[in-house]
Amino acid sequence: MARPTAPEKEPGRLKQMWQVFQMTRRYDGAIVLYLLLAFLAPTAAGVLLALFFGDNNVVLWILYVVAGVLAGVLLVLIVLGRRAEKAAFSQIEGQAGAVGAVLKSSLRRSWTGNEIPINFNKTQDAVYRAVGKGGVVLIGEGPRTRTQAMLDKERANVRRILPEVPVHLIYVDAKDPQATPLGKITSTLAKYKKALTKSEITAVSNRLASLGKNGLPIPKGIDPNRVRAPRPR
Hints:
Blueprint (H helix, E strand, L loop, with lengths): L12 H15 L3 H23 L4 H35 L5 H8 L5 E3 L5 E2 L5 E7 L2 E7 L2 H18 L5 E6 L12 H6 L7 H12 L24
Parallel strand pairs: 4-5
Antiparallel strand pairs: 1-3, 2-3, 3-4
């Protein structure tokens, strides 16, 4: 009788970080320089503080230097995470389902979204919806000339059941220099003026679910579940 196969162990944190770095380096040639600067700048600052304020006290020297090194490590993790996310976005930008991948993996806590589009057409253009403190945001994926009609239709649907809630439109198209880049969707959402409280966000999300369009299949293209940027832990 064959023995049951033991489940594969997840890689440790250091290995995960190395994998993230390797993936990022393939698409970001400047990542090594950024990480070196991120580590050396705080470390150098700690050494300088020790020189000027250590007062020949060994304990203070150690504290300043250790604090600088720890700050450097923290900054390296932050920079690596952001550059890795940017590298991941560069791989999927322009593909069907890219906006859904961003909504699933990168939204901040004050926003909710779904990787499944609420509307799409035969050319794989799609409309996604996010709800957060700024209100309701409809995101068109594809050329504006083809997504405009779908966005207008969905905006009318939202205003019909939620006339008091602000509705914003975002256009995402890799070929349009005036459109919102894929990697700037979350920062664009953060710029909207607060219009809803946490409880109102939940109420609005539940109300929009009554439109009955969240079950539409995603257009053929990439699998959003496989394009999320790995994050160091």
